[in-house]
Design brief:
CATH architecture of the largest domain: 3-Layer(aba) Sandwich
CATH topology of the largest domain: Rossmann fold
Pfam families: T2SSE
Family: Belongs to the GSP E family.
Shape: globular
Number of helices: 9
Organism: Agromyces seonyuensis
Structural class: alpha/beta
Distance between the termini: 65 Å
Strand order of the largest sheet: 9-8-10-11-7-12-13-14
Region (Disordered): 1-68, 87-114
Biased composition (Low complexity): 30-40, 105-114
Low-confidence stretches: 1-31, 45-124
Number of strands: 14
CATH class of the largest domain: Alpha Beta
Order of helices and strands: HEEEHEEEHHEHEEHEHEHHEEE
Number of domains: 2
Helix content: 10-25%
Largest sheet: 8 strands, mixed
CATH superfamily of the largest domain: P-loop containing nucleotide triphosphate hydrolases
Length: 439
């Protein structure tokens, strides 16, 4: 908000003492001077002690004893308190305040229900930043996705599909307040003018929020939680199987050759199929002497490589200025002397920039794309190319030249797998994807 500049009295003209050599300036009187008035005196303002301790928290941390109080209530065996009783009464982003009439103690109220500690998010396999989810943290253990559907409840996916979670209770007002705070915690904003937003918390936790009336059934919060640390390509493809399937070994060998030969890769699949996880595992196979520059809308990639730098898109501010999109970031990445350029997800004008970069000597690059099957990839590219201003024939020629290998993923019965590997080719004037035979 712009504020008017403060006004100050004009400085007094210095008076020269007689005999200093300065010419005397006769005073000019335009009006009869008024007698000087004594400055009014006021009694000192008394210092009023607050009736309750006042506590503030930095914007960069989620601090509130109310969180602990909420966790206590949610873990109690008795009636579950409503989330709205502790959320929604403060307006500072990232700070939860108690409801009117409740005190804000420096520690958890000893009269509250017993607290079940939030599981140690730093242990193997768990993300180290689960505590950033505030009241959702106790429900995130072992989950890859959390879904808050307005006041209808909380769902979690722990590998077997989304299932309702017992012990969570929140009305629409509380869920909206939680959504606003999570977004603010990640440095962005969501409101009626901007009702949908993605944001990153900590090291790769992705939060997506949609407010009503765009979300017809109430505020929707979707949380994607990457597994703690990065996984190797072999561990990702074979898991704990002592004797991997020959077909899986052939896929692993093909992917390793692609990375070492610096082929440009496009990882495709529907949402939740593991595109980001596979891409991170593939990039970890790159030479440690290579510099990898990653461009993402919301930073998610965790790559086990010694030289990775990332660029993240920026949302416009409340005045509508300051937005930095992926297409601009791809251009900036080209100036950073990358050995590999990676775009986390192609879904707009950045596709044009990425294809241009991969066609001008920047090999070894990669990106991800939403598609239902390997055969559908050309149609998805054409749709995105049209949105980016590329004619179909131009898009087809650039894609064939720029993309060396397409790896398609799918998820069936709760399990993610590589469904097909193929190449983009031109056939009868059309862009098609031909599967590779790895037998």
């Amino acid at each position: 908000m712009f504020r008017p500049a403060p006004t100050h009295p004009a400085p007094a003209i210095p008076q020269f003492a007689p005999g200093t050599g300065a010419p005397a300036i006769p005073p000019v009187q335009t009006a009869r001077p008024e007698p000087a008035r004594a400055a009014p005196t006021h009694p000192p303002i008394p210092r009023v002690a607050p009736t309750a301790p006042v506590r503030s928290a930095p914007r960069s941390s989620w601090q509130s004893p109310s969180d602990a109080h909420l966790a206590a209530g949610l873990a109690a065996t008795g009636p579950v308190p409503r989330v709205s009783s502790v959320i929604g009464h403060g307006r500072e982003p990232g700070v939860l305040r108690p409801a009117p009439g409740q005190r804000e103690p420096s520690t958890v109220d000893p009269t509250a229900a017993p607290v079940t500690p939030v599981p140690d998010s730093g242990r193997a396999g768990e993300h180290p930043d689960l505590d950033l989810l505030g009241p959702l943290a106790p429900f995130a253990t072992g989950a890859t996705d959390l879904f808050v559907n307005g006041g209808a409840g909380l769902w979690a996916d722990r590998g077997a599909g989304a299932e309702p979670v017992a012990g969570w209770q929140a009305d629409e007002a509380a869920v909206r307040e939680l959504a606003v705070r999570l977004v603010a915690r990640g440095g962005r904003h969501v409101d009626d003018a901007h009702p949908a937003v993605d944001v990153r918390l900590g090291r790769g936790i992705r939060v997506h929020v949609v407010l009503p009336p765009v979300a017809t059934a109430g505020t929707l919060v979707s949380v994607r939680i990457p597994r703690g640390g990065s996984r190797s390509l072999a561990g990702l493809l074979h898991g704990d199987v002592p004797t991997p399937d020959p077909g899986a070994l052939a896929v692993e060998a093909r992917l390793r050759r692609a990375v070492r030969a610096r082929e440009n890769l496009l990882i495709t699949g529907a949402g939740g199929t593991g595109k980001t996880t596979l891409l991170a595992a593939l990039l970890a196979e790159a030479s440690p002497r290579e510099r990898i520059v990653v461009v993402e809308d919301v930073a998610e990639l965790v790559i086990g490589h010694p030289h990775v730098v990332g660029l993240e898109a920026r949302q416009a501010n409340l005045e509508g200025a300051g937005r930095i999109g992926l297409d601009a970031l791809v251009r900036e990445a080209l100036r950073m002397r990358p050995d590999r350029i990676v775009v986390g997800e192609c879904r707009g004008p950045e596709l044009r920039e990425l294809l241009g970069a991969l066609n001008t000597g920047h090999d070894g690059g990669a990106g991800t794309l939403h598609a239902n099957s390997l055969a559908d990839v050309p149609a998805r590219l054409e749709a995105l190319g049209g949105a980016a201003g590329l004619a179909p024939d131009v898009l087809a020629r650039q894609s064939v030249s720029a993309i060396d290998l397409v790896v398609h993923l799918e998820r069936r019965d709760g399990r993610r797998r590589i469904a097909a590997i193929g190449r983009l080719v031109m056939r009868d004037g059309s862009l098609v994807a031909d599967p590779e035979d790895l037998a």
